[in-house]
């Protein structure tokens, strides 16, 4: 079959790449996740199963929501803090005893990825707070507390606690105080209809910093990449072009991405003498490139999984690009984790790894041949990465769900044939009895919200789609 013959049948439809809006059972709040999220991708797995079998009775299926399953119970409504918070902070010296530790944690880490604050100016104004000479600037105090919060969250902790508080307790306490001082204006700005973070160029009234050989060059570079990401969203996920045209557009965007990444100063002339910021930016930019490349070609993996016929060459070439970036993502993070301890506390790596693993799982569930050993090994590596981040409840739960998928994939005699993908071969009891990897107790699958583990791989497609949405758009993981 030529691609032109099947182009209409394989055309990407926004209704197929469905968005998900669900109520979190723990907060009663509505959470929305768009069709470029990993939650949506997992939804493709569920729809794949429904496409292949009609044997099960829908009335007997247990409903599940990963939005609720992956909810972090540590994030609760803020307690009311006295309106005289500024006075209380001043009396406490604005946490001067621990401030430098957290500030260095911020400026020595994620500041290099998002260098939006001038360190010298920040330290000068912070010193005024500590000396008590300027305690009236509420907006700076909120910024100060936010920096301390992020520093506490992402620094490498060699201590179990500081002054009786651990990483997450410090981070949440400081950020809650920052929110209180701002009186939630950040929420109001979105309610008032402000444009998205990037916006059109006319919304910006400050010149972009030049792309030079400094840590601040990444700002302009990421604005350029943001424009490319917008093309992915609009051109690939919000259009109904035939497959041939969509693949052509995706390849055009990929070439633009390649030109972008090859022009980055961080990519040129790598040496052992590179400053810390350059090494960290190079690592993160590589991951961002492969993450967007996965999203760019992911719809074609879904199309192949839904179509029982042999896909045309052009479609398979697009699928292989997505698989290649998924593999590379896991390899990059794994190598970084072996060398850089600090990188294990950059929690958004959970998102990158979950997307990559879900891409490989969907691909292996689709193939009619025995799953490729190399891909299964990489999925195991992804699980190991998530297990290393055992401080995060979201990472732990994601690893557990991946384990469940792998067990089911391995239980199929020849990959995941059409007729077996819909069979509920794995019961809750089987999952409960299976050994749980990692240094934590087995998850309590009997609690409300974990009923989804009663379903096999085909049914679980929604799981990682919802997972990605939770990871991308919800609060930071525990």
TrEMBL record:
Keywords: Nucleus, Transcription, Transcription regulation. Residues 1-22 are annotated as: Disordered. GO terms for cellular component: nucleus. The keyword Glycoprotein does not apply. This is Transcription factor domain-containing protein. One of its GO terms (molecular function) is DNA-binding transcription factor activity, RNA polymerase II-specific. GO terms for biological process: positive regulation of transcription from RNA polymerase II promoter by galactose.
